[in-house]
Structure formats: structure tokens, C-alpha cells
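User: Okay, second chain of the day. Same drill as before: sequence in, C-alpha cells out.
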Amino acid sequence: MNYYAHSLEGQPPEKWQPLEDHLRNVAEQAAGFAKPFGGEEWARMAGLWHDLGKYSDAFQKMLYDANGIESHLETMPGKVVHSVSGGHLAQSRGWKGIDRVLCWLIMGHHAGLADYASADSGAKALEPKMRTPELSAPLLEIVPDEIKRQPQPTPPKPLLNHADISFFVRMLFSCVVDADFLDTEAFMDRSRSRIRQSEYPDLCELLSHFDKHMKAMCAHAESTEVNRIRAEVLTQCQAAAESEPTAFSLTVPTGGGKTLASMAFALRHAIKQGKRRIIYVIPYTSIIEQTADVFRHIPGFESAVLEHHCNVVDEDETRESVRSRLATENWDAPIIVTTSVQFFESLYAAKTSRCRKLHNIADSVVIFDEAQCLPPEFLRPVVFAIRELQRHYGVTPVLCTATQPVLTQTDSFDFRFREGFSSVTEIVKDPDLLSTRLKRVEVDVLQGLGPIPYDTVAEHLLSENQSVLCVLNRKDDCRELADRLPEAQTLCLTTNLCAEHRSMVLAVIRQRLKKDALPLYVVSTSLVEAGVDLDFPVVYRALSGLDSIAQAAGRCNREGMLTAGKTIVFVPQDQPRYVQSPASLAREYLRADRLPEVFLPQTFRSYFGQRFFQLGSDALDKKKILELLGGNLEFSFRTAAERFRMIDDDWQRPIIVPYGEAQATVDKLLDESGNARRHLRRLQRFTVSIPVREHQMLLDADHAHLLKDWPGICVLHNRNLYSERYGYLPPGKIDSYAPEALIE
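Assistant: Same drill. C-alpha cells below.
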């Protein structure tokens, strides 16, 4: 009897994919994916055994029945499960420990990685008392000997070097599931597979384009001190790229040219060390869009950059855009620009769709832009993951920021931060001297950091008689202050504006800063701080953590066109409690005698060391992720994935707001079901997240409605609740809502 892995609708069985072909294809492709980290033997075996259950009469009858073909096969009624048999075979071989690893890879290749305690698809399901009859003796007799009689795999390089086993399992899992997806696609959808196989430019070609671009850029740059320093940073990055792989840091003040300089390092280092791709990990989508645009404007880079985050929208169905969408599934492009959320949640994921890309992180240069934004409550598992990638998977990490956090093990801190790097190599020669040379801002405080009412803050802003950026800690604070400023000259930026609206406001701000003679007052939450390219002569910042204050100051005199810009720190009268701890620590560094050195790298080393010590080890892994993945091969993959959510959206819901093309896009979604995916992605740019309680209140009061046939998609139809000035406006008094619901 012939056994098949997949059928083709309308085609006879002789046109179907033979099961043995599929097993061997997946085995070889998975092994190739795992080769960069020495796991090819294990990946090959898992690939070879992942679909052994398809040798059963029950599965073959299902294929025949689905195609309306008489098979004469007799099977017992019930659900047909094919993903457990290979795990049973591994368990029966008596390979202590190895069997569990193979079980997770094989049994989870559809359902995802399970908790050990799961009786359905976890390794516990393979204990003798939990066995199902799926891999019966007759089935074992059917499986060809050359497939089932595999030798015990030898310990791979990562495990010999004491790598974390749970991390190794996820990387192997990525290899197997991606190989399975790709081979299935190659048989079932050959046109899609051909698009996926189109060639990208290689890194050597990209470096040639990059060097030409930078040469032209430097030739046309104005002869200013800032541009001379940027050129020096670029040269040092190019030289450091020749170094042997390790963990690197790039500590350069805001406006020092980190984005292009880090690309110069990454391209040269990748080529020198045989790395396969460059990945930029960035905390906010607003910076991602900006960074991706910088790279795409380099001639020759247009098709090489994959931007992967929730707000990316394909406006057409060209071959190139389809190829980009396919690349988001497994990150096989040469340059990836993605979010911290996407990157780290994937590394701790359990679902097959999110894990597919992990093997393509191996042998890469990974730039962690604005590294100070790594979330403290996940800091230990985040740094642990970066360290594992660096030690065992050929990754060169670069921690890139003006305000470098302490992520190394030190004599005073390693007992609290065991997961820290043993050492980090700085790329620039003297970060403290560089910071002093790039100093473009004088820092001062208002009224000794005593509480100040918003009327007084507004008076100070108006008295500057020039354009001012004021950064506050909460969205309602922004409205409080903006209401006290002249409407025609004031713009407000918070996440109550949808992404499309924020992009438009940022464009207006840049245009008015260049052309308008009148002062412009921009009132914003912290969303403008990290990496957003704005340049004000004066910046006011509500007291918060020292890193946030420094990032706000980075929007001041960015291009160094003034002798010195001015950054003023103040305390609003109703400073919220949630910033008290980092703000209290920041006060120590904002004393008059310490202000001249407040933004030096040595200051941030001291600040972050105290901050992390203050938080304590438990708070740096608040959800106990590392505990779930430790122990005696009894990992809780699924629970860890559920807990590792850098943005906890349980208390928030998205709502589509009446801005721009939102309603027209909703109409297209309802009318063009064939293009639903594209329209849904487009609508993400017109959404605002609001508290669950408020979401339901809007529905009850008929301010919003759920889309017919699209449960869960909510549209705000009351236009009075969305303004050009403030974006979404909650009905009633804004201070009637819980303060945590108003935090940016």
C-alpha cells in the first residue's frame, strides 16, 4: 500500500505527496536549519519521525474520504491524531532525556510546545500509563526500517557547553516546524513557494551600497562639530567590526549617529564572521518605522529590509510585498527590523507560528536599540535569552543606547543578577569623553523640584518665547497642560491618538519647526523620547527616571545648531505614584553639584546599578519565567509563553476610531472578504487601546458598535469622542478613571 503525507484537491492519489518523501524532506531541511548551532542530528531525527502517525489506516482513509475517493480502508470512528506516534517511538527507545526532547519536538509540531504536566501533548503523555494505542505494533511494522531504526543522537555542541536545555528545545522546535511548513507549502502551493525562494541581495552587496551611500552623505554634510563626531563614531564602529564575536555595547549620546554607525558595524562584522543576517530590535513602532525608512532610503537596500511589527501594512499585492509577508513568518530576509515585543515573546513562545523564525536568529548580528527600554519586570529572562544566543547560537549582540543599563555580572551585583553578561565590550573608545564633547544641553530644575501647578508650568513654557517640547508622565497630564496653552500653537502627542494620527502630527511638528516663525508648544507623553527625530531649542520634562529625562533631553538641540539647548526638569503638583521610585532615585543625580555630569555614561552605570538593586532579583523576573523553564526536564513551555507578555493587554481592548480613512477601510473589510487580511492590518493604524471597562461602557451607551460577522472588532462611531487635538476623549470626566488606565 502507498502512504501519503498530503493530498491535492481534485487530483488522483498518484499526484499526492508520498509520506516517505515528506519525512525525508523535512528531516534534511530541519537539519540544515539546525546546523549553525550544532543541533542537526537531533533536528533530522525529529523531522524524520514527526509524521509517523500518517502511516496509520485512519489517516490514509481520512485523505481518501476528504477527496471523495473510495479506499476500502476500515478504521474505528473517532478523531485522527498523527502527531503522537513519533514521540511514542522515541520514548520506547529508552534514550534517557533524549526521548523527552524528541517528544516535545514531535508531539508539538502542530499544537505547539506543551507543559510537561500536560496529559494531552506534553512529555508526561508519554509515560506508560498515559500511552494511547496510536503507535501499535502493526503500525510499527509498516514504518520502513530505515526511518524507524535511527541511532541514538550524540550530545550536540550547545549541550556539551552547558547551554540551557529548554532554550535548545525551542530552537530545535523552530527548525522542525519551519521545515514542515515549507515542505508542505512547496507541495501544496508551488506558486507561493516560488515567491518565497526569490533571492535577496547578499550582505557583501549591501555593504558596497552602504559604503557608497555613507561616502556621499559625509561629503554633503555641513562642517559642524556634531557631524565631525558622528564621522568619528562611524569610523570606530567600522574598526570594531573586525573584533572577535562577543557581547558589544555602543554608548553614544542621542544625535550621535548610532543608527547608521551600528549598521556599519553590523554589516562588516557579519561578513567578517560569516553571519547570515542583521536584526534590529527596537522598543517602539514609531522608531521602527523611522529606522526602517532610514535603511530603505539607502540605494540597493529597498528590497532587503523586512519590517515586522503590528502596524506594517501592504498597500498592494505585488510580488515584492507578498514576498515580504512570507518573510515575516520565518525571518529569512538579510535585514530584519522588529519590536522588542515580537523578538522576546517569540523567543519564549510555544505556538508553532511564533517559533518558526527562531532558528534564523542564529548566526546573526542583533542590535538592541534603546537598550535602556528593556522592561525591568522581564530583565532576567530577557538578558538570559540574549546571553544564550551569544554563547551558543552564534549571535553577536550589540546593546545600543545613550543611557546604557548595567547588564553585566559585577562584584556588587552578580548575586542578584546571575543572568548578566560576564563582560561587554564597548565599541567607542571613551564614552564619557564622547558624551562630554557631544554635550549640547544645559540641565536645570524648577523650584528645587518642589510641586508646581500646571498654570505655573504653562507660564514658564510661554515665557520661553520659542518652540518648546514638554514631556509628561500621563495622558491626562498632557490635556491638563495643553488646555492652558494657545490652541493654534499647541500640538498634543499621546497614545490616545491612533498610529496614523500620530504620524501626521509628527510630520506637522517637523515641518513647523523648520518653517514657522511662531513658537510651537508640543505636549507629549514619553512616546517621543526614545529615537524620535525631533529637535527643539527647549525641553521641559516632568520628573521621572533619569534615563527618561536624558532621552527627553535628546530631543533638545539635537543637531547642535545652538551653543547650548535648555532642558528643565520639574515636578507636577499631582505627580503620580507609579513614577515615585525611579523619580526619587533621579533626584539624587539632579542636585546642583551633580548636574554637569548628569548625562555621562558613568552616571547611568551608577543609576541603573542602584535601580536594579533597589528592585531586587525577584522583581527582575516578576512572572518567574526562568523557574518555569528550569528543573529536571519538566519544563512548562506553554505557561511560560502565556506569562511572558511584555504588553499585558488583559485590561485593555482595541477600538477603531473615526480618523482619516478608518471608516472607508471598515467598509472595504465588510465588502471585500477576499482581502480581509490586508484591510485588518490597515485598520491597526486606526486603533486606540482603552480599558476593558471603558470599552464595554462605550458599547452600552451606543457610542461604539461591534462589526457584523467580525466579533471582537469594535468601531467608535460617536465622532465627538475623537478630536484632532487630543485623539480619543473618554466620555465624562477624565479623572473618574483609574490612574493606571491613563498611563502611557
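The first strand starts at residue 4 and ends at 6.

User: Thanks, on to the next one.
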